[in-house]
Amino acid sequence: MTAPVMSMPAGRRFLHDIEAAPITRVPAGRRCLDGVETAPRTSLEAAALERLREVLETAVRLPFYRERLAHVDAAAIESFDRFAATVPTFRKADLIAELERSGGYTTGIEALGEAGAAAVVLTSGTLGFPTFASLGRGEFDHGSPREVLREFWMDGMRPGMRVMCQYPAWHHLSMLDNRALEWMEAKVLCPWGTFVPRFVGHAIELIAERRPEYLLTVTTMLHAIVEAAIGRGMDVLDLFEPVRYAMVVGEPMSPGQRRLLVDLLGLDDLFERGGSSDGLWGGADCPAHTGHHVWLDHHRVEVLDPDTGRPVEAGRRGTVVVTNLTLDRSLYVRFDTEDLGELLPGQCPCGRTHPRVELYGRLADCVRVRGRLVAPYDVRARLDEISGLVGVPLLIVREGAEMACLQVRLDGDSRAEDLAELAAEHLQASLEVPVEVRWGGRLPKRWKARMTTALAREPIGGAEWRRP
Amino acid sequence: MSVLAVQPERPGAGFVELSREALCGYAEALGRAWGALGAGAGDRVVIYDYGSSPVAYLASQAFAPYLERGAAELTGATALCVDGLVDNVGRLAHVLRHFKPRFLFARAELVPLLLSGPTAMPLQQRAPRLVVSIDGDTPAHSERASWEGRWRGGLSLLARCDAAAFLAAECPRCRALRVPEDLYETRITRAPGARSPHALQPGMLTVRPRFLEIDPITTELSVLPGAKGAGCSHEGLELA
Fold first, then answer.
1. What average pLDDT does the segment B58-68 reach?
2. A-chain residues within 8 Å CB-CB of B95?
């Protein structure tokens, strides 16, 4: 593996020594790709703070931040607490307003070098409105692809592996993957089409013919591949025999679903990536499966109380706020992703020292029941603990901002009332809110979250759903 | 050594095995096509296609692993890709409105949607040149004329055959297919019994890329020996 060597300004020696080292020096068999992964947290935070000051010095000169950060003296930011107390957050709605005002595709957060943008990407389109992000050459050579390379290494990918990559050229993460796969010297296999179920035939053909050892795909597509293979009468274990690992992205995966897929497909392991193209950040879980590692040399993640805007302690849920710590890219400084998450307390059993975050989906998709915020993931994860309900599609009925009872509808006809009762009892005991569970007939087929969780804005009825 | 294997769109065509050098040659072909269409430094190009399409993954170094320079780097333009799903036409309209590209590459099957969907509105003011990629089934003259009449920015065709790693654009002026001879060997394969190999009758384009070690492939592209267009010096092939 050969990644470009980074030229670093003064003041970053701690990271520089590691980032400047050719990746080829990593000995085979080493558990971590580089020493930053297991560096003491205090050293990491000190180095990250130095990067943060550079980021702030750059940001204050950018149109979007000029007024927002006018009162901020970067040199005086001596801690992340001080940073959080001084620098305001912003949301996607602010970027949308800026985009509409400018009429163009830039929003004034582009911290690009003289060479300008090497690529422009669309963000995910939450709030029904994609924004644009720009990435410079420096970002591709020294930025987030290095994070992805760490994740690939952490999660079992090795040079020379055959990797199936459903990479749509439009997505930010795919671009990072492309560079990291190149550095990894993987043999990349790309099926025709994109990651919606109608292209599963191509993916199945690729898996059968080219025998990838690693799959990079989205959660729903993996489900669709399995479903289609079973539908064709294929032996799924046989089809997936060469596949050792899969890494999926797109929606939170419950432990129950992971176990089901690992067993069903005979995988060594299945990993989940999370993050957001709004904010240009992300992280994968490791073999310990205890949250997503957020590399502190690239991003600072906070979790805030969505009502007060104040930081919450590790282990408490809130809205995820991200600050990028590298330049030559669209720069997000205290960007409120409006994703529900929590920073996990303690250190990961894998030995890596970086913060870990667990992600539960969009805040807008949550319901509030008797004051408690319930995410679709919460329901999904609990139901996946019940044999017979793993992966069964469900809906949560939303009736107003505050509900007295959590109403869940399961896909299927009234086939086992006692199972619905069991589900209600289990959810009530674990979520500590009143719960009603019913079989909902055929639930709406959704492009996203088809096998996991869909959310009804109103009570369901009569929609189309085709059982796997 | 192959570093990237891509499944072509046409079923049963196996995989296109690309080494770093082959990727370089293939991207050069797309870069030449962009150049033939007039794309240059500072231009913005939008590709409305799947990421597995060479029209997309060869467009930028960022879009494919092992790609040293894509068409964007070769021409100095900036590329943005919108996943080629029909459902994404609203996103595309949004992109056209804000990104203001000079060129829009799209698959032929999407053209009717582009002409009638939400993309039609922003295009009333400032339409990019629409470059329609085809891998067979060249649109009939009447159909093409209809498209051109409804699309204000002008329209060109980009001929492609994934299995043969072939890409070539029409000259926007004379419509001759500009096939880089240093990248491809081509010939017209006519059906047995055709009157004369020199007659002005269409045949199928047979291609062997010079940057890829494969046997010649007869594509689904129907071509004619091209005539010189007015004010244009290109000779060669014309899509029929």
1. 97
2. 105, 122, 130
Q: What are the helix and strand counts (H, E) for chain A?
A: 14, 22
A25 in a domain, yes or no?
A: no
Instruction: State whether A181 and B65 contact (CB < 8 Å).
Output: yes
Q: For residue A322, what is the domain's CATH number?
A: 3.40.50.12780
- Determine the Cα–Cα distance for residues A355 and A243; give it in Å rounded to an integer: 30
Q: Do A173 and A204 belong to one domain?
A: yes
**Structural domains in chain B plus CATH codes:** 2-239 (3.40.50.12780)
Q: Quote the Cα angle for B162-B166-B169, to 5°.
A: 120
Task: Tell me the Cα Rg of chain B.
Answer: 17
Residue A132 lies in a domain: no
Say which residues have a Cβ less than 8 Å from residue A188's Cβ, sequence separation at least 6. Answer: A163, A165, A181, B3, B4, B5, B65, B66
Same domain, A213 and A235: yes
- Partners of residue A135 in chain B, C-beta under 8 Å: 62
Sheet of A281-284, strands arranged across: A281-284, A269-276, A245-249, A214-218, A162-165, A187-190, B2-6, B16-19
**Residue (of A428, A446, A444) closest to A436 by Cα position:** A428
Dist CA A78 CA A82 (whole Å): 7
Q: Among all residues of chain B, which has the CA nearest to that of A185?
A: B3
User: Taking CB atoms and an 8 Å cutoff, what residues of chain A touch B22?
Assistant: none
The total of structural domains in chain A comes to: 2
Flag whether A463 is in a domain.
Answer: no
In angstroms, rounded to a whole number, what is the distance separating the alpha carbons of residues B47 and B88?
Answer: 12
DSSP letter at A412 equals B
Sheet order of strands, B203-209 included: B78-82, B44-48, B103-107, B129-134, B155-161, B166-170, B177-178, B237-239, B217-225, B203-209, B184-189
- Say what the pTM is: 0.91
Least confident range from A77-81, A179-183, A361-365, A420-424: namely A361-365
Give the model's pLDDT for residue B122.
Answer: 53
pLDDT value at residue B229: 57
Residue A378 has pLDDT above 80, yes or no: yes
**Beta strands A281-284; A269-276: pairing state:** antiparallel
Residue A350: pLDDT band (50, 70, 90) is very high
DSSP secondary structure of A13-56 = HHHHHHHTS-GGGSPTT-SSSSGGGGS-HHHHHHHHHHHHHHHH
| A374: containing domain | 367-456
CATH number at residue A437: 3.30.300.30
Structural contact between residues A234 and A264, judged by C-beta atoms closer than 8 angstroms: no
User: What is the average pLDDT across A249-255?
Assistant: 88
- The identity of residue B163, as a single letter, is A
pLDDT over 70 percentage in chain A = 87
B104: helix, coil or strand?
strand
**Can you tell me the distance from the alpha carbon of A99 to that of A107, in angstroms, rounded to the nearest whole number?**
5
- The C-alpha atoms of residue A152 and residue B35 are separated, in whole angstroms, by 37
CB contact residues (below 8 A), chain A span 186-215, against chain B:
186-194, 196, 202, 205-206, 209-210
Q: A18 CB near a chain B CB, below 8 Å?
A: no
Q: Has residue A248 been placed in a domain?
A: yes
